[in-house]
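Thread amino acids onto this structure.
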């Protein structure tokens, strides 16, 4: 793959992210305006709370390019091999496809009804991802911050006398020992 192809791919992704960011509401006031705006595609909104929630949760929606890439990866031969190896079976890729198409429809029409299936899928993915962390019994989750969270820094940290600073200034014994080494690999 040439450098220009890599650069073009990065530019396309940056453009998609920038376009998505431009489409997303930037403030709470804009979000409430969008949620309060009547739905143009239908005469009456049956469930305004769901539309408002969908718009408020629109931060969960990724750029459409991401859904397309996930769908292509899921359907690729290497993706199928990976699924067989990890899960013991191939997975259904229709969710990624539906999210991709819904995202495209939302991008063209700006109709919040197309966001609802995407957001519900993102919530499901997030729940699955967090399930293993919450099922972990090895670590105890904090309910309050540590009692000494606001205590002063140790003297070494206060004076910036850490190993990293020493390494950066070439004062560290480790750095000096590395320069003394005469090892050559052939």
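Threaded sequence (186 positions):
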């Amino acid at each position: 793959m040439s450098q220009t192809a890599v650069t073009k791919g990065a530019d396309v992704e940056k453009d998609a992210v920038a376009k998505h960011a431009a489409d997303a509401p930037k403030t709470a006031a804009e979000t409430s305006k969008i949620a309060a705006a009547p739905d143009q595609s239908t005469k009456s909104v049956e469930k305004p709370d769901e539309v408002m929630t969908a718009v408020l949760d629109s931060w969960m929606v990724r750029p459409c390019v991401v859904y397309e890439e996930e769908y292509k990866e899921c359907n690729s031969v290497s993706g199928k091999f990976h699924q067989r190896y990890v899960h013991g079976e191939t997975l259904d890729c229709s969710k990624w496809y539906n999210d991709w198409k819904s995202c495209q429809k939302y991008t063209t029409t700006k109709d919040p009804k197309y966001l609802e299936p995407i957001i519900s899928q993102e919530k499901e993915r997030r729940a699955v991802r967090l399930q293993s962390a919450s099922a972990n019994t090895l670590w105890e989750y904090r309910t309050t911050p540590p009692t000494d969270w606001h205590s002063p820094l140790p003297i070494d940290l206060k004076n910036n006398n850490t190993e990293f600073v020493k390494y950066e200034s070439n004062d560290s014994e480790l750095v000096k020992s590395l320069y003394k080494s005469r090892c050559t690999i052939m």
